[in-house]
């Protein structure tokens, strides 16, 4: 608190500070840390700058002959050292505002500019028509420039991001037709096929090769769009499967409206959860969780329920049934 | 303390009338120094004692008023034991102004008593 008090004293006008600053600090030291002294110093600071400063007393006066007189403030130009704190505070505030705008995270109310900086809302002005003399340029503006936020699922699955060119979280009929071309763009190693990693899987680099292989298969099987594209379920989307991508995508169009929405593409939660449990507990990768493997695990109760017929192991199908019955116990 | 200007006493000299009425802080400071010379902390303690703890003067208010009283010649600085401890004294002008203010306040009190008896 003493440092705060010293700071308040240093903010006083120089003349007052040099004359009484030491005495005020001595009184502060004698009285001990006291909130009322801080309040008194704050009031004093405002009083000395606002009321007592002679510069505030400048006012035009009228001479006896009626001609108004004015004071010149040239001699009262602030010192350089007095201006520097203002400069520093301004720069600090400007930097903070720029930082907040640049790192607005998910706070859209802090956004300055466009929600979608790329592609631009201004469409290309291509036309075959002859230029009109009084209309030298044509600018087309999208009728509804504010797209909904990009779906997290479309960002996660690279194939969906590649399909959804206009980023409206819907794969339109035109985008379905262009699906093979979009998939070719994902083939980074140009081997003519798409692996799970090229479709969006980000495995732990230290993962056991056996677990990595089963993880790739699970990844390709759990996501409906990948399962539809990988027709033979071998864990990769081959060249022929890429060519047949449009037809494969149309099989997912549950409501037959010609386009695919996120609702039609999201994986079944029960299947995804069962696949996740299998990945974690099926140590030998044989597609079964035995009693030894499930003993003491976090999902032991669920696995016991899944092993209803007492055969001693649980398959992924058993798990799916158990999870669905847990979610809907009445059915 | 009393927030209105009193113009009733013709005995107040013109050069002193410009100083009154005194603000409560200035009045208490002059009263504190009327007894003996004091340093800032002593003035604060004396003001608290005189007002029986009702009026407490902070250092900011004290030195703001001391500066004005010194500028007006009512208080002088007589000695210094370093920058942290200076002693102040009531000047002859300050004593006259204080006497004038006390006379003015006595008149106010007298008028007030008369009016209160009528109620």
Protein model, in words:
The complex is a heterodimer of chains A (331) and B (119). Chain A has 331 residues and is mostly helical. Among the domains of chain A are: 32 residues, no CATH class; 114 residues, no CATH class; 59 residues, Recoverin, domain 1, CATH 1.10.238. Chain A is built from 18 helices and 8 strands. In chain A, strands 1-2 form a two-stranded antiparallel sheet. In chain A, strands 3-4 form a two-stranded antiparallel ribbon. Helix content of chain B is 56%, strand content 11%. With 119 residues, chain B is mainly alpha-helical. The N terminus of chain B is likely disordered. In chain B, α2 crosses α3 and α2 crosses α5. Classes of the chains: A mainly alpha (331), B mainly alpha (119). Chains A and B meet through α2 and α3 of A and α3 and α4 of B.
Task: Supply the key terms.
heterodimer, A: 331 residues, mainly alpha, two-stranded antiparallel sheet, 18 helices, 50% helix, B: 119 residues, Arc Repressor Mutant, subunit A, three-stranded antiparallel β-sheet, 5 helices, 11% strand
User: Which strands sit side by side, in order, in the main sheet of chain A?
Assistant: 1-2
- Indicate the radius of gyration of chain A in whole angstroms: 36 Å
Helical run tally of chain B:
5
Number of strands of chain A: 8
> Which whole number gives the mean pLDDT of chain A?
79
Q: What class do helices, strands and sheet pairing of chain A give?
A: mainly alpha
Number of domains of chain B: 1
CATH class category name of chain B: Mainly Alpha
Q: Approximately how much helix is present in the residues of chain A? A: 40-55%
Biggest sheet architecture of chain A: 2 strands, antiparallel
Largest beta-sheet characterization of chain B: 3 strands, antiparallel
Radius of gyration of chain B: 15 Å
């Amino acid at each position: 608190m003493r440092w705060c008090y010293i700071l308040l004293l240093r903010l006083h006008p120089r003349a007052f500070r040099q004359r009484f600053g030491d005495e005020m600090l001595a009184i502060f030291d004698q009285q001990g840390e006291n909130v009322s002294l801080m309040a008194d110093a704050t009031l004093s600071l405002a009083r000395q700058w606002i009321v007592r400063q002679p510069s505030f007393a400048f006012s035009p006066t009228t001479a006896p002959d009626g001609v108004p007189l004015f004071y010149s403030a040239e001699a009262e130009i602030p010192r350089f050292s007095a201006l520097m704190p203002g400069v520093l505070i301004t720069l600090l505030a400007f930097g903070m505002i720029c930082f907040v705008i640049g790192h607005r995270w998910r706070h859209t109310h802090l956004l300055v500019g466009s929600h979608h900086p790329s592609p631009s809302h201004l469409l290309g002005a291509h036309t075959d028509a002859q230029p009109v003399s009084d209309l030298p340029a044509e600018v087309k503006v999208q009728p509804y420039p504010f797209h909904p936020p990009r779906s997290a699922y479309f960002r996660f699955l690279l194939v969906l991001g590649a399909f959804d060119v206009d980023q409206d979280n819907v794969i339109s009929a035109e985008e379905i037709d262009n699906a093979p071309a979009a998939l070719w763009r994902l083939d980074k190693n140009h081997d003519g096929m798409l692996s799970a990693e090229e479709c969006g899987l980000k495995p732990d680099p230290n993962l056991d090769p056996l677990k990595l292989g089963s993880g790739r298969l699970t990844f390709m099987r759990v996501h409906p769009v990948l399962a539809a594209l990988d027709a033979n379920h071998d864990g990769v989307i081959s060249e022929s499967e890429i060519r047949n991508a449009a037809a494969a995508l149309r099989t997912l169009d549950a409501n037959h409206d010609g386009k695919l929405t996120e609702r039609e593409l999201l994986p079944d939660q029960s299947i995804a959860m069962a696949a996740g449990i299998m990945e974690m507990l099926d140590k030998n990768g044989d597609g079964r969780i035995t009693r030894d493997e499930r003993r003491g695990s976090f999902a032991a109760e669920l696995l016991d329920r899944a092993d209803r017929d007492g055969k001693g192991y649980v398959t992924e199908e058993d798990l799916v049934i158990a999870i669905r019955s847990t979610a809907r116990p009445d059915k | 303390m009393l927030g209105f200007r009193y113009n009733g006493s013709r005995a107040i000299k013109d050069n002193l009338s410009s100083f009154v009425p005194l603000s409560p802080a200035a009045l208490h400071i002059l009263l504190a120094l009327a007894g003996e010379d004091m340093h800032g902390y002593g003035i604060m303690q004396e003001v608290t004692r005189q007002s029986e703890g009702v009026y407490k003067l902070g250092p900011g208010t004290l030195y703001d008023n001391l500066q004005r009283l010194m500028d007006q010649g009512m208080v002088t600085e007589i000695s210094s034991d370093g920058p942290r401890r200076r002693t102040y004294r009531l000047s002859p002008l300050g004593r006259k102004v204080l006497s004038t203010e006390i006379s003015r306040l006595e008149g106010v009190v007298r008028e007030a008593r008369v009016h209160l008896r009528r109620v």
